[in-house]
Amino acid sequence: MNPGLVIGPLLHPTLNETSKCFLTLISQGKYSNATPGGNFIYVDVRDVANAHILAFENSLANGRYCVVAQVLNCSQVLQILRQLYPTANFPI
Q: What is this structure's pTM?
């Protein structure tokens, strides 16, 4: 499975790579995990888990599978974050 940035509930108290990516974007205005052009590829962690189960249960499954729910540009991500956190001071 080849997921994009995995978002959703965390199972552990430490930050995962996606959370670190968002934190860097919010605090420093950098987006190192984006594709060229500043696009982010997102998928929910529950969809990734379901994709693994479906591939495991299907004997014909082989090769690589891209698991993507949505692609957003950096400016779209910041717009969503600004709507969710209107009092936050984003660097960009």
A: 0.71
